[in-house]
């Protein structure tokens, strides 16, 4: 059964031509251009392609993995062959996560348009599918995978193999019983509807049924009063419960009869609990909900380090793609490493290494095109400048000409400012962070200092290497400071983010201006974290923290420690997946994914003394307890592709916050069941600074002889947790969703006894 929602595939010309198939060129570089035959499969979900020469070898990808389609020469690869193929025949498929793009050239502009429009329609259709349609689509996908002989039916042997693929270890007898019950036509095979029935019996949610029956007065349905009791007692809904209960029935109840009775059946109840309203993340905090009119230094800002790199720092590939990916993820501070390039054109790469090079002007063009697609709030361009005065002038020219009005070149209102503007004031603006000749006041008064002899680069890797007691001459040589002059043109582009060297908190308190910003290496930051003044310093001005120069593999540090001290611009290697990026994604998943999160009041107030090491000393200190009952898991992905292997899942709950809150606990592991494991294990935590805490749920495949394998995770701010019975929709290592994998939990938050 092909599930296409509102899209009629037979009447759509674009889809028709995609079903027939098209020969297009797959482009990897100026020299690698090969013809491939592409075709959309009957399920409208899978695109199949093969080389014209190769025997039966073919590849496929799912439309669900495609994030966007770009028309024309909108990737580096297609730009490099722009002279060969016109833009109306070229397009790029951008995949979710960290998978590379697919660059294609069609034989004609019309064919290119068919594929561009067709894939966009399929993506839209997929995004508009309801929870139930998605599940049906998923079942349909499994059916296709298991139906080895492609006869549209499944015999018992195919069903046994399917169960293994789905992570189910079920004894033969039980599997056969379900198979026979589902085989209504008694043909010895399962067809369409029979397979759906088999799947539904397989996924019977006893855990949810138990909750449903506890509140149902007749065991069959929840009357309005039953549902209200459940919402009040378990989900802790207080206001407008009647309205909310009616809304849930209207939205999730499939039976019209039940709707007329203002009741909810078990199917409706399960749909509600699997929806965004039944998820762990409070829907009111997904959209923009914070005050955006505070000074810039009062926000945590989503920030990327070495944005141009897609891999490691020594031989990695530099690419404008790095900027596009970071900006589309809501990143609001990106970095460029600028060096003198050929023919007077500045280039961007990781200096003194073998990383490839890209033109500065191409980075600025991408910034102009993508800065405000994910968020309207300001983007900070952090410049590490190694260029001669001549090429700095060229940089200033590119910034001014390409960005136009988007580039902020003078203080707002044209007055001498007395404090930093807010994200709201700076909507749609790009701010340059870099060295500046003199101060803001001087520019406003028309006074200009001489171009100063100064260190233009503000990354202090030399200190970092020395701190870490590494005496590796080649690395030390690489990061020597260069004394060089600054061009007035580039200096004039810097307004609210003047880079200055940090001496001490005492010095800052007396001499610092609000528009000055210092950059700290991670090891320097760790030293300063121990000083209580750091939080206060960050209430007055911006700080940027970046990874050690020794992290040549593009690994990341834990950003939580830096946020605990109020550091706003904590720059991470977005290209490297792992717990550090999970925390970053978790913190910035609230407030409309806009890249700015308002710091807690006690970190913005210069009269308060908040010490992350001793949180119990602050005013209004109220620790909370968090109780997480991990009930069950649903359709966890397979980790090992080996045919017979089935995972032994365990769940770990981690609290990331101030040192006193750092904690992790795990459930026991369940043998051989990734399909519907049941734990019913309760984990307890005490949280002293809930405003700064993040909670990370991790599923791993237990292995007694080696390190456990990662299965999925979900991270969110403690304050965004909805109490009660909730589903947690798991994400892959890359932070992309892996439906329908989820955990079912019960959460309780209380003030600690005795407080």
- Overall pLDDT, averaged? 88
Parts with pLDDT < 50 across at least 5 consecutive residues: 1-6, 451-480
**Distance between the ends:** 58 Å
SS elements, strand count: 30
Largest sheet data: 11 strands, mixed
- Beta-strand proportion: 15-25%
The geometry reads as globular
What's the helix count? 25
Compose a concise summary of this entry.
The chain has 755 residues and is α+β, with helices and mostly antiparallel strands. The chain contains 25 helices and 30 strands.
List the helices and strands and how they pair.
Elements: H1 13-20, E1 22-27, E2 33-40, E3 46-51, E4 59-62, E5 66-71, H2 76-80, E6 90-95, E7 102-106, H3 109-127, H4 131-146, H5 156-165, H6 172-182, H7 192-202, H8 206-215, E8 221-223, H9 224-233, H10 241-252, H11 256-260, E9 263-265, H12 266-274, E10 299-304, H13 321-328, E11 333-339, E12 347-348, E13 358-359, H14 360-370, E14 379-385, H15 389-403, E15 430-434, H16 440-444, E16 453-455, H17 461-467, H18 473-478, E17 483-485, H19 488-492, E18 494-499, H20 505-511, E19 516-521, H21 522-529, H22 533-540, E20 543-546, H23 559-564, E21 569-572, H24 579-587, E22 596-598, H25 601-604, E23 624-634, E24 649-656, E25 663-666, E26 678-687, E27 694-701, E28 709-717, E29 724-731, E30 737-751
Parallel strand pairs: 10-21, 11-14, 14-15, 15-18, 18-19, 19-20, 20-21
Antiparallel strand pairs: 1-2, 1-7, 2-3, 3-4, 5-6, 6-7, 8-9, 10-22, 11-12, 12-13, 16-17, 23-26, 23-30, 24-25, 24-27, 27-28, 29-30
Helix pairs in contact: 1-3, 4-5, 6-7, 9-10, 10-12, 13-14, 14-15
């Amino acid at each position: 059964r092909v599930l296409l929602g509102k899209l009629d595939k037979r009447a759509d010309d674009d889809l028709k031509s995609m079903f027939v198939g098209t020969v297009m060129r797959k482009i990897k570089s100026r020299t690698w251009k090969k013809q491939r035959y592409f075709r959309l499969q009957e399920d409208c979900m899978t695109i199949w392609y093969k080389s014209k020469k190769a025997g039966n070898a073919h590849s496929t990808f799912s439309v669900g993995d495609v994030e966007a389609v770009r028309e024309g020469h909108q990737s580096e690869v297609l730009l490099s062959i722009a002279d060969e193929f016109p833009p109306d025949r070229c397009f790029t498929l951008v995949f979710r996560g960290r998978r590379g793009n697919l660059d294609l050239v069609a034989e004609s502009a019309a064919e290119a348009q068919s594929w561009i429009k067709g894939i966009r329609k399929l993506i839209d259709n997929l995004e508009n599918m309801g929870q139930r349609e998605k599940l049906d689509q998923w079942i349909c996908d499994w059916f296709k995978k298991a139906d080895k002989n492609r006869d549209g039916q499944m015999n018992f042997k195919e069903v046994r193999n399917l169960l293994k693929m789905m992570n189910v270890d079920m004894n033969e007898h039980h599997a056969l019983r379900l198979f026979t019950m589902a085989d209504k036509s008694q043909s010895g095979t399962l067809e369409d509807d029979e397979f759906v029935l088999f799947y539904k019996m397989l996924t019977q949610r006893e855990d949810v049924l138990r909750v449903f029956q506890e509140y149902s007065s007749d065991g069959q349905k929840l009357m309005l009063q039953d549902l209200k009791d459940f919402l009040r007692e378990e989900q802790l809904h207080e206001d407008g419960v009647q309205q909310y209960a009616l809304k849930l029935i209207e939205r999730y109840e499939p039976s019209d009869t039940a709707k007329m009775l203002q009741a909810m059946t078990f199917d409706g109840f399960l749909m509600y609990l699997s929806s965004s309203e039944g998820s762990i993340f409070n829907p009111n905090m997904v959209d923009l909900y914070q005050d955006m009119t505070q000074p810039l230094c009062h926000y945590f800002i989503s920030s990327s380090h070495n944005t141009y790199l897609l891999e490691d720092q020594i031989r990695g590939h530099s690419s404008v793609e790095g900027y596009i990916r970071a900006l589309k993820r809501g990143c609001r501070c990106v970095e460029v490493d600028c060096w003198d390039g050929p023919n007077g054109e500045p280039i961007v790469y990781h200096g003194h290494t073998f990383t490839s090079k890209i033109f500065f002007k191409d980075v600025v063009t991408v910034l102009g095109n993508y800065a405000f697609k994910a968020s309207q709030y300001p983007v900070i361009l952090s410049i590490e400048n190694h260029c001669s005065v001549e090429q700095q002038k060229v940089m200033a020219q590119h910034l001014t000409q390409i960005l136009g009005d988007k580039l902020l070149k003078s203080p707002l209102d044209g007055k001498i400012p007395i404090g930093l503007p807010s994200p709201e004031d700076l909507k749609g603006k790009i701010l340059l962070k870099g060295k500046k000749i003199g101060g803001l006041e001087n520019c406003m008064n028309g006074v200009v200092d001489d171009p100063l002899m100064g260190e233009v680069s503000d990354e202090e890797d030399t200190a970092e290497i020395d701190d870490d007691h590494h005496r590796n001459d080649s690395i030390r040589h690489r990061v020597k400071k260069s004394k060089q002059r600054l061009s007035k043109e580039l200096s004039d582009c810097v307004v609210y983010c003047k880079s200055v060297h940090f001496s001490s908190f005492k010095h800052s308190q007396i001499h610092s201006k609000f528009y000055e910003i210092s950059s700290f290496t991670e090891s320097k930051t760790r030293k300063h974290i121990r000083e209580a003044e750091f939080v206060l310093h960050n209430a007055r001005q911006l700080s940027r923290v970046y990874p050690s120069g020794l992290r040549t593999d593009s690994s990341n540090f834990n950003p939580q420690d830096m946020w605990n001290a109020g550091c706003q611009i904590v720059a991470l290697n977005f290209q490297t997946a792992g717990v550090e990026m999970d925390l970053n994604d978790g913190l910035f998943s609230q407030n409309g994914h806009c890249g700015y999160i308002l710091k807690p009041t006690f970190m913005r107030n210069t009269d308060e003394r908040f010490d992350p090491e001793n949180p119990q000393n602050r005013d209004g200190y109220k620790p909370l307890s968090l109780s997480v009952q991990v009930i069950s898991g649903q359709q966890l992905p397979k980790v090992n592709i080996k045919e017979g292997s089935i995972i032994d899942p365990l769940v770990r709950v981690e609290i990331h916050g101030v040192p006193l809150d750092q904690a992790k606990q795990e459930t026991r592991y369940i043998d051989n069941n990734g399909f519907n494991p049941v734990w019913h294990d309760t984990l307890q935590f005490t949280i002293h600074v809930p405003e700064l805490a993040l909670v990370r749920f991790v599923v791993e495949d237990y292995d007694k002889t080696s390190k456990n394998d990662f299965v999925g995770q979900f991270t969110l701010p403690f304050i965004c947790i909805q109490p009660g019975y909730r589903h947690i929709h798991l994400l892959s290592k890359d932070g992309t969703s892996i439906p329908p994998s989820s955990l079912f939990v019960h959460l309780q938050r209380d003030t600690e006894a005795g407080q």
